[in-house]
Design a protein that fits this description.
Blueprint (H helix, E strand, L loop, with lengths): L6 H9 L6 H4 L2 H20 L3 H14 L3 E2 H6 L9 E6 L3 E6 L9 E7 L4 E12 L2 E9 L12 E8 L5 E6 L9 E2 L15 H4 L7 E4 L11 H14 L9 E7 L4 E3 L5 E4 L2 H16 L6 E7 L16 H13 L5 H9 L2 E4 L3 E2 L21 E4 L3 E2 L10 H13 L4 E3 L9 E2 L3 H5 L4 E6 L1 E2 L7 E4 H16 L2
Parallel strand pairs: 1-2, 4-14, 4-15, 15-21, 16-22, 17-19
Antiparallel strand pairs: 2-3, 3-14, 5-6, 5-11, 6-10, 7-8, 7-11, 9-10, 12-13, 13-23, 17-21, 18-20
């Protein structure tokens, strides 16, 4: 027989706080569900490597689930009622969708949101050149990356080209098993004496991130730049484009490898773009599976977060307000800015974004008492920002208490964190931009290793807990 607990042991249990491991707190059934969910998640990662592709993927899922295009309904001035499902894709790069609840929107909306852009290598507008018998594309990296991580790996080329006649051509090269891939070269160690003396930020320059495209010349002695001509002919034969069409193109080089299980126990996922598609996926899945609530449920997936959320597809744009204004217009007898402001002030949001998980190889950058760990469930980040909480979204104690109560009552395994030690660094999310509208917002997402690298790592049980957290929040009254 086990000994009875002492008074001190009982007192410690009732008064102390300890972070729980989500694997240990989950039964076999929950773990199977986590693994099943992550098989679906890996499909999203492989098929939605860019913001355009992810938007298209989500739109197809929404239509299949019975959602209707809000723009079309608005043109018809068709009134919305409880249970109606609507969506809108903004500029093919961001998405908002909602399920109308019983209560009027002025009593608030339960929102979840994430961003669907990721660090990558963008192709410049005038990129194609030949040098030393090779053809390369000039690039401009997108988002905060360690440039040295993005060389000598296989890339695929994704995007859209708008031709002179206005027609568009979708480009995707490198994802099929039979496709060629591309790469960015690096200097061999035998000749890298000077390079190795440089700071890590300078080992690879931004202008040195040139994508290798080809080396075979066109068979004609009368023309110069024969390799470039051959590449242009291949592109023209396949896509009907000419060199000038690069001027009106959006082409992105992204790692070409597929999402893979990590570890002998297959407990983790390694893939490109998990910041922040892991949270975007769990938001989408939660919206599709959530039971109807008295409150309207809404999800927004934004672009441009990695470069400050600027532009008409980013979280600083008018996109969210425009979407909600149409919902208000189609669910109420009258519309006014006053009603819009009341709606926003009464609304709550989980800003779903990743946090840096503790890596034992680099543990000194974290305050372990206030850091996120893989396998400990979804992580809640009360405030963001850097060095004195500058540029932070800092949720109030009342809202933090509400989320704590909701998660505990629904047995969500969660813990709190901030991004690194004070003065070590920091970062931001879309939370601050939605908070500026008057909405109560807190960051909530998945711990991740190797953030902003070509292969980021997440724990499957954390992905599952994030999905459950989003779902119970959307269903809350």
């Amino acid at each position: 027989m086990s000994e009875e607990k002492s008074q001190a042991e009982l007192l410690k249990e009732s008064l102390s706080y300890e972070i729980k491991n989500a694997w240990e707190q989950s039964d076999d059934s929950q773990i199977r569900k986590a693994f099943d969910l992550c098989e679906n998640y890996k499909v999203y990662l492989d098929k939605g490597k860019t913001e355009r592709e992810f938007s298209t993927l989500v739109e197809k899922e929404l239509i299949k689930a019975g959602y209707h295009n809000l723009q079309e309904l608005f043109k018809q001035r068709k009134k919305l009622s409880k249970g109606d499902k609507v969506y809108y894709v903004n500029k093919k790069k961001s998405v908002a969708f909602a399920i109308i609840g019983q209560k009027p929107l002025t009593e608030g909306i339960n929102m979840v949101g994430a961003h669907i852009d990721s660090p990558r290598i963008d192709i410049k507008q005038n990129p194609l050149y030949e040098d030393s018998g090779l053809v390369l594309l000039k690039t401009h990296y997108y988002g905060g990356i360690k440039k040295y991580q993005w060389v000598t790996i296989p890339f695929s080329l994704h995007g859209v080209v708008i031709k002179a006649d206005g027609t568009s051509v979708e480009v995707c090269i490198g994802e099929d098993e039979n496709d060629p891939v591309f790469t960015i070269t690096d200097l061999l160690p035998h000749l890298a004496q000077n390079q190795m003396q440089k700071k890590a930020t300078e080992v690879i320059s931004g202008e040195g991130l040139n994508l290798l495209l080809g080396s075979r010349p066109y068979n004609d002695k009368k023309v110069k730049d024969k390799v470039k001509l051959n590449i242009l002919k291949i592109l023209n034969d396949k896509y009907g484009i000419v060199e000038e069409d690069f001027l009106s193109a959006e082409l992105e080089a992204v790692p070409s490898f597929k999402a893979k299980d990590i570890g002998l126990d297959r407990s983790m996922i390694g893939a490109y773009g998990q910041d922040d598609r892991v949270c975007a996926f769990t938001c989408v899945k939660a919206m599709l599976d959530a039971k109807p609530s008295d409150k309207t449920a809404l999800c927004i997936l934004t672009d441009k977060e990695e470069i400050g959320s600027m532009g008409n597809t980013g979280a600083q744009s008018n996109f969210l307000k425009s979407f909600i204004s149409k919902l208000l217009y189609l669910t109420s007898e009258s519309y006014s800015d006053v009603l819009m402001n009341i709606c926003l002030e009464n609304s709550n949001m989980l800003s779903a974004d990743v946090n840096s998980g503790v890596d034992p190889s680099y543990a000194d950058v974290n305050d372990k008492m206030n850091a996120s760990f893989l396998g400990n469930g979804v992580v809640v980040q009360k405030y963001t920002g850097s060095r004195g909480k500058y540029d932070a979204s800092d949720a109030n104690a009342e809202y933090m208490g509400m989320i704590r109560k909701l998660f505990n009552e629904n047995k969500i395994i969660w813990h709190t964190a901030e991004l690194g030690k004070v003065d070590q660094g920091g970062g931001g999310t879309i939370a601050q931009h939605v908070a500026n509208l008057g909405v109560d917002v807190i960051d909530c997402g998945v711990p991740i290793l190797s953030m902003h690298s070509p292969m980021e790592i997440t724990s499957k049980i954390d992905v599952y807990m994030c999905y459950l957290a989003m779902k119970v929040f959307l269903e809350s009254k």
